[in-house]
Amino acid sequence: RGWTSLQAAERRVRSFSGSARVSPVYGPAESQQVVFADVCPLLTSLLDWYNVCILAYGQTGCGKSYTMLGPLSKDKRGDLGIVPRAAGELFRLISENPSRSLKVDVSIVEVYNDDILDLLANERRPAVSGPPWEAPMTKATKREVSPPVRSAEDFVALAAGSLRFRARRATRVHAGSSRSHLIITATVTAAPAGGSPGKWPCTPGQGHRGEMGRPAGGRASPGSPGAQQVREQVHAKLQLVDLAGSECAGVSGVTGAALRETSFINRSLAALADVLGALAEHRDHIPFRNSQLTRVLQDVLGGDAKLLVILCVSPCRKHVAETLQVLGFGAQARHVQRGPAGGGGAAARKPR
Ligand SMILES: Nc1ncnc2c1ncn2[C@@H]1O[C@H](COP(=O)(O)OP(=O)(O)OP(=O)(O)O)[C@@H](O)[C@H]1O
């Protein structure tokens, strides 16, 4: 227990960020409900047509998947993570205004060894039938286009089904370590005025499903210059990201294929930090293209998207070096100031 109190930890986060804003710090026993309460307002921003990203970052075994998805065991439903709760909130908000004709398309991919693999693809083999690094090798382009998702239950079922195919492996540090970055994307599209869901100008797979390298969000509020856009077509993207954990190969004891995975994980996390650094410094060139991870996240890292980074850190003193590195990443994310939306910020969470 490196910190004497959560208040001290909060001060620590504040001093790292150099900002007057205080990041909430959640202790190991904090409920998922409390964490989600701080995340929830971003869902409203999504329906104001901001692109939104909620991203969990941290050392391996520190609770990223727990925070984003919940416990893997089915008997702990009360501990649902951010993904199922966000799905529920999204469809609740949509149902509040039935006159707005909105559709939700969902894609779920993992970035594994710098390859993008579609976890909703039809051709795939579950990880349990072979070594994890051989399981999800279907390329994103091979998938049949799925129909829009119509309820939170459908959304959650898609996510739960896809998780069976995510690459995992036991390491010395974590018995169920994720070996890939998981990216769940929900694209919300508004029908043009007078249109019906059957008359969408954008059908799934034709240009608004989060392809890399193109701006995705259109944003307008009634009466704003962009309101005309609403009458035509608007879409915004929610990306829920469970990153693979940063890892020291010597500590996790990986060799062979697992070591190769570690190397890709650490390189892609470094590429993400480089992008945030370049954005924070307002550099002309932002190196989005240096990794598949940053390519996939380009729309929600650049532009005026709202980005919330959840830092998962260990409460153990022996991991203090990794914890400081993770807090440094959060501080860097905080310095990214983009368009009028402003950044979402960073929060820190400690696992049990
Ligand atoms: N706040 C918490 N409350 C209860 N259990 C937790 C909490 N945080 C993490 N855990 C448990 O700790 C273990 C590791 O957590 P998790 O799998 O989320 O780590 P991770 O950061 O995603 O790891 P990796 O990067 O290696 O995939 C899991 O068994 C998880 O259920």
From TrEMBL:
Q: Where is the signal peptide?
A: none
BP-aspect Gene Ontology terms: establishment of spindle orientation; microtubule-based movement; negative regulation of autophagy; negative regulation of mitotic centrosome separation; nucleus localization
Q: What superkingdom heads the lineage?
A: Eukaryota
Stretches of Low complexity bias are at: 213-227
**InterPro entries given for it?**
Kinesin-like_fam, Kinesin_motor_CS, Kinesin_motor_dom, Kinesin_motor_dom_sf, P-loop_NTPase
Q: Name one GO cellular component term.
A: microtubule
Stored PROSITE patterns: KINESIN_MOTOR_1, KINESIN_MOTOR_2
Q: What residue spans carry the region label Disordered?
A: 204-230
- Provide the protein's localization: Cytoplasm, Cytoskeleton
Tell me which UniProt keywords the record has, alphabetically: ATP-binding, Cytoplasm, Cytoskeleton, Microtubule, Motor protein, Nucleotide-binding
**All residue ranges annotated as the Kinesin motor domain in the record:** 1-336
Binding positions for ATP per the UniProt entry: 58-65
Q: Which GO terms describe its molecular function?
A: ATP binding; microtubule binding; microtubule motor activity
Pfam families the UniProt entry points to: Kinesin
Q: Which family does it belong to?
A: Belongs to the TRAFAC class myosin-kinesin ATPase superfamily. Kinesin family.
Q: What's the protein called, per UniProt?
A: Kinesin-like protein
